[in-house]
Amino acid sequence: MSKLRHSRLDCTPGCMVEATLALIDGKWKGVILSHLLEGTLRFSELRRRMPGVTQRMLTNQLRELEADGLIDRTIHAQVPPRVDYSLTERGHSLREVLDALRLWGEIHIGLFAQPKAAA
Amino acid sequence: MSKLRHSRLDCTPGCMVEATLALIDGKWKGVILSHLLEGTLRFSELRRRMPGVTQRMLTNQLRELEADGLIDRTIHAQVPPRVDYSLTERGHSLREVLDALRLWGEIHIGLFAQPKAAA
DNA sequence: CTGGATCCCGGGCGATACTG
DNA sequence: CAGTATCGCCCGGGATCCAG
């Protein structure tokens, strides 16, 4: 597991929330997972779809997602190296969570999103 | 808004996911929100319920949550100062999201990813 | 094409001390 | 009780170069 900050024994409200957050949080994981929800992608494809992320970070985040068992990394032994990334079953199971996050964002942040006004 | 890393204009898959994550992410926000879901709490009560967090960070996170319109901060003019924190309507609307996160964690982490307990 | 290794900087975050 | 102010460490993460 990448980073579970505080002891996961203090399961006061929020423990599991934090535990799950620790998996999908991380600067680019949410975006990566969202992209992979649409299907398998190779490294260069992910890069192209995420202009803002550096190659270092992309590799980094992918490794963490892999370590957390959320994505599979398939290396094809070819002269031009090729690596495919796809969601594991566990990864796919996050769809509902990601959908919940996206849905809330669309409703409560939308396009203008009053950070405090709203009320 | 506390920290929306990349332009929220590049709404490729994951944009809203990240936007929402930016609000509830942040080391302690998930836990804070979870606690406040149970009702209004004053500063010291929150501290007591979250042994691991420093006073500085707690204040910090509470301020960000307030700036994002997720919680209300009520100051009572008393000799022993007293400040109550409670969820705004917007904050309460996160319940489903937090529930989704917690539920996923309980199912996909709680069962087999446990260090020793579990099984 | 994929990704490792290095250098380096800003800031996140903890510890501590002070205030109203 | 509920913060604010200051110092300092650590590391996340960008840029760059190298390798299979």
Report on this structure.
The structure is a homodimer of 119-residue chains. Chain A has helices at residues 15-24, 29-36, 43-49, 55-67, 89-92, 95-108; strands at residues 41-42, 71-76, 82-87. With 119 residues, chain A is α+β, with helices and mostly antiparallel strands. In chain A, 47% of the residues lie in helices and 12% in strands. The first copy, chain A, is globular and about 50 Å long. Chain A is built from six helices and three strands, in the order H-H-E-H-H-E-E-H-H. Chains A and B meet through helix 1, helix 2 and helix 6 of A and helix 1, helix 2 and helix 6 of B.
Would you summarize the structure shown here?
Chain A is of the alpha+beta class and 119 residues long.
Considering the chains and any ligands shown, give keywords for the structure.
119 residues, homodimer, DNA-binding, alpha+beta, 3 strands, 6 helices, globular, 47% helix
Give helix and strand order of chain A, one letter per element, not per position: HHEHHEEHH
Biggest sheet strand line-up of chain A = 1-3-2
How many β strands of chain A by DSSP?
3
Helical proportion of chain A? 40-55%
Average pLDDT of chain A works out at 85
Low-confidence stretches of chain A: 1-10, 112-119
Largest interface: A-B, 53 and 54 residues
Indicate the structural class of chain A.
alpha+beta
What's the gyration radius of chain A in Å? 16 Å
Span between termini of chain A:
39 Å
Count of separate DSSP helical elements of chain A: 6
Oligomer: homodimer
